């Protein structure tokens, strides 16, 4: 295999990966430019195996999107709608309770809840929806509100982010998902999501969360107008933040879905591009414990293949995913527990059901 990697022009990177040396941005550029996806997969697989052995994780989770009303109206997003738009919706506190009640008979361990930046829901609403979830399911872990939402909630509360996080924790918040990161580059933010919290702002909320004992995830929205260098700078910013705080759990590359967005003239990503982003992320993010192949965005079949290209996690059962499906995703709305186990097993990995913080719940 070594001579194969050398022929692909990556012999020196293989040596650095084996020696557990940090890869430079120039190494990252060469990885992205390498047309040999098997060589990339081989390198990424070394790191995946070192960090997670033969385990591949999944979780029994439920997604709740409390409202799609949003003042940011990012060009890549089909989910966010202006207040009053015919597709705009918001769940009342009791609607959120009902959503949780609908699935009390399932062994859900995590509720993943995000929404838009709503112009007039009060701060108390966000505390209340956390509380009703906990009332109905006291043992569930709530992973909720992207760093963009947390920043908005702190403004609503008129309090520092740190104090807001303490109050959200008190109401039931367990950790923070990785959305809203998009691409940190100010150029990309100006062109695609001008109103959104800046990349530096997102990272600052993240650091505060980590300092207050809350784990978070991170994402990168790829496959639109970003350059390879902008992707690598994004990964580097995450890597430096993780060096400082150690609070990130997983990185999830998000494949851009163009349908029904203001960027619908773009085509969707390809399988090779999806695998490349997973492999490069695994190699560059040497201090991240987990890389997720989010089946909702890349499809269950490619997510299964991704388990040999650096990913060690397939996310979970999900159900009622709205954000990607409004942007044209043709994947299922949910995967069954047994299907996830089968996908992982057939990929040659050992299926491990985890909780949000990657504690092992069951092995199969
Ligand atoms: O924040 C919006 C992105 C995110 C589109 O933390 C789009 O474990 C693709 O962050 N095409 C929400 N992506 C999803 C997300 C997530 C999903 C699963 C697990 C975790 C985790 C996080 O989706 C948004 C935005 O970055 N997004 N529109 C689109 N058209």
Radius of gyration: 20 Å
Counting helices, strands and paired strands, the structural category is alpha/beta
Please state the oligomeric state of the protein chains shown. single chain
Largest sheet: 4 strands, mixed
Molecular shape: globular
Instruction: Say which molecules are bound, naming each kind only once.
Output: ligand V47
Number of helices: 16
Using the coordinates above, name the CATH class.
Answer: Alpha Beta
**Helix residue percentage:** 40-55%
CATH superfamily: Aldolase class I
Corresponding CATH architecture: Alpha-Beta Barrel
Query: What is the count of distinct domains?
Result: 1
Q: Report the average pLDDT across residues.
A: 97
Strand content: 5-15%
Strand order of the largest sheet: 9-1-10-11
């Amino acid at each position: 295999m070594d001579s194969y990697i050398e022929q692909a022009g990556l012999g020196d990177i293989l040596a650095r990966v084996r020696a557990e040396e940090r890869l430079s941005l120039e190494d990252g550029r060469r990885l992205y430019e390498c047309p040999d996806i098997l060589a990339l997969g081989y390198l990424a697989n070394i790191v995946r195996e070192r960090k997670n052995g033969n385990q591949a994780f999944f979780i029994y989770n439920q997604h709740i999107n409390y409202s799609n009303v949003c003042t940011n109206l990012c060009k890549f997003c089909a989910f966010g709608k202006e207040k009053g738009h015919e597709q705009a919706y918001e769940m009342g506190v009791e609607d959120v309770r009902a959503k949780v009640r609908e699935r009390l008979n399932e062994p859900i361990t995590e509720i993943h809840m995000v929404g838009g930046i709503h112009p007039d829901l009060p701060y108390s609403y966000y505390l209340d929806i956390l509380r009703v979830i906990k009332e109905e399911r006291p043992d569930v872990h709530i992973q909720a509100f992207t760093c963009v939402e947390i920043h908005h909630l702190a403004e609503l509360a008129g309090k520092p982010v740190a104090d807001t996080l303490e109050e959200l924790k008190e109401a039931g918040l367990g950790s923070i998902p990785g959305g809203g990161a998009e691409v940190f580059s100010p150029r990309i933010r100006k062109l695609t999501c001008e109103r959104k919290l800046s990349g530096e702002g997102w990272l600052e909320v993240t650091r505060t969360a980590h300092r207050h004992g809350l784990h978070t995830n991170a994402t990168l929205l790829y496959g639109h107008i970003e350059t390879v260098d902008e992707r690598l700078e994004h990964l580097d910013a995450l890597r430096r933040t993780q060096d400082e705080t150690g609070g990130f759990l997983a990185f999830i590359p998000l494949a851009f879905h163009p349908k029904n967005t203001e960027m619908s003239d773009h085509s969707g990503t390809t399988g090779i591009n999806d695998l490349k982003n997973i492999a490069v992320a695994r190699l560059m993010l040497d201090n991240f414990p987990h890389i997720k192949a989010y089946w909702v965005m890349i499809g269950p079949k490619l997510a299964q293949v991704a388990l040999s290209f650096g990913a060690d996690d397939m996310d979970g059962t999900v159900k009622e995913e709205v954000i990607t499906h409004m942007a044209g995703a043709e994947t299922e709305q949910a995967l069954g527990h047994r299907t996830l186990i089968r996908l992982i097993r057939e990929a040659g990995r050992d299926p491990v059901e985890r909780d949000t913080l990657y504690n092992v719940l069951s092995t199969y």
